[in-house]
Design brief:
Blueprint: E1 18-19, H1 33-38, H2 40-43, H3 70-73, H4 78-85, H5 96-99, H6 102-106, H7 125-131, H8 147-156, H9 165-169, H10 178-182, E2 192-193, H11 197-203, H12 212-218, E3 224-226, E4 233-235, H13 245-255, E5 260-261, E6 268-269, H14 276-281, H15 291-295, E7 298-300, E8 306-308, H16 319-326, H17 334-369, H18 374-395, H19 405-426
Parallel strand pairs: 1-2
Antiparallel strand pairs: 3-4, 5-6, 7-8
Helix pairs in contact: 17-18, 17-19, 18-19
Length: about 425
């Protein structure tokens, strides 16, 4: 048993601080670790309140850009550094274009029709962006790929986005790491930092209404676009209420924004990115959990220290995290339930995706035929644009329905209905 007087008070991770570019505050203390150690059997799995945060000084950064590296932080947080190293072990990657050939057709004229593979993980971000066959002439493609580019944007401003990719990429020193979520702060009290200014700019005062752990992940796991003027990353919603696909589409339409105009159809299309944060916040779990609860195991050392693993995992692969699920889903086989949701979502995506591909071809044929007025074609093009948006919004959200199955179904049903409407106009 650890002596009570030797243990620091644990800090509730649910009251993490968002600092730096956001500048919010608030720390709440929980029960000391000895209480949870003595009552482990009665209390069930580890919780956020078991976490013990150290009161430490940040090390000096050796990097010329001032980013404190993971290796430098390892001297302060050795256990966490070990778990971050475990991310290097993942090599599994899916080629979406081979898995779902219809994507080549619906993305015709855009980079994703040339190369579209699943991300391997944080440890491979620089390798992945360098290896992609999608064009990346400017440094904005490094957004979310490395803390060194994030720091560059924070230091010199949005001009960084238009710099030459190769020139900037050659100076990047590490993949997604400590700075992305914590800045150069020591993490005392579980402090988190929103280092991507486009998120804090978009949300403004509403940023305080979102769990900091969700913001920390969501600043990259989100739907974003590049400003046509200076290629800077932008976030569309200004509140959680505006994080629905309907609200975002309305804003894109009002802006007359498109990622590209498809040559064969003439449609101004949108390419959704990966709206994990928005999808989660629009769901029923957002009031109960945050990203860390479901993707970062809580680990306890023999000495009683409790910390978050920084090897981000699927909860289906973590018995410890599944124990948390069981507190609400008692007696439920969570792996079977979630995989069932994902299988049904994937099957529906395939059905709607192939249907969207056929609609795209029908519209292209209509354009080539010369039998329709531009007014008639524009009406169908708008339907095509919006149907593809709703399909893509679901397809690119990496949980395959697990984060918010109701929203996934709504997006696919909406896309399906709109395709029928568009096809009827071409009949």
């Amino acid at each position: 048993m650890i002596h009570r007087e030797t243990i620091l008070k644990c800090i509730c991770a649910g009251a993490l601080t968002v600092a730096a570019v956001v500048g919010l505050g608030g720390i709440a203390t929980g029960k000391p670790v000895w209480y949870h150690l003595e009552n482990r059997g009665a209390l069930g799995p580890l919780t956020r309140e078991d976490i013990e945060y150290l009161d430490v000084e940040a090390p000096e950064a050796a990097s010329p850009d001032g980013v404190i590296s993971q290796q430098e932080w390892a001297a302060v947080y050795p256990e966490i550094a070990v778990t971050m190293g475990e991310m290097d072990q993942n090599t599994y990657q899916v080629d979406y274009l081979e898995e779902s050939p219809y994507l080549v057709n619906i993305y015709e004229g855009y980079g994703f029709a040339k190369d579209y593979k699943s991300a391997i993980g944080h440890a491979y971000t620089l390798r992945d962006v360098a290896a992609t066959e999608r064009p990346h002439p400017m440094a904005n493609c490094l957004t979310c790929k490395t803390p060194n580019f994030t720091k560059l944007v924070n230091d010199i401003g949005e001009d960084a986005y238009m710099m030459d990719f190769e020139e900037v990429a050659s100076q990047m020193q590490e993949t997604v790491s400590c700075y992305n979520c914590h800045g150069n702060n020591a993490g005392n009290g579980g402090e988190l930092v929103v280092t991507h200014k486009y998120l804090s700019d978009a949300l403004g005062d509403n940023i305080s209404k979102v769990d900091p752990a969700v913001l920390s992940c969501g600043q990259c796991h989100m739907e974003y676009y590049f400003d046509p003027e200076n290629k800077a990353a932008r976030f569309v919603p200004s509140s959680v209420e505006e994080m629905s696909p309907e609200a975002m589409l309305e804003k894109y339409n009002a802006m007359d924004f498109s990622d590209w105009t498809q040559e064969s159809t003439g449609t101004k299309l949108l390419k959704a990115q990966h709206p994990e944060m928005e999808t989660f916040l629009q769901g029923k779990h957002a009031g109960l959990l945050n990203c860390a609860d479901c993707h970062m195991e809580l680990i306890q050392t023999e000495e009683g220290k409790v910390y978050h693993s920084h090897n981000f995992v699927s909860p289906l692969d973590s018995p410890a995290i599944l124990e948390t699920c069981a507190q609400c889903h008692e007696g439920v086989d969570m792996v079977s339930m979630v995989k069932g949701i994902q299988d049904r979502t994937t099957a529906r995506e395939t059905e709607v995706g192939n249907k969207l591909s056929a609609f795209k071809d029908a519209l292209a044929d209509a354009v080539a035929s010369g039998s329709y007025t531009e007014e008639q074609l524009d009406e169908v093009r708008q339907i095509h644009r919006e149907a593809q948006w709703y399909f893509d919004y679901c397809y690119v959200e990496n949980a395959e329905g697990a984060h918010n199955s109701e929203l996934a179904n709504r997006c696919l049903d909406t896309a399906d209905t709109m395709i029928d409407e568009g096809m009827a106009l071409l009949a």
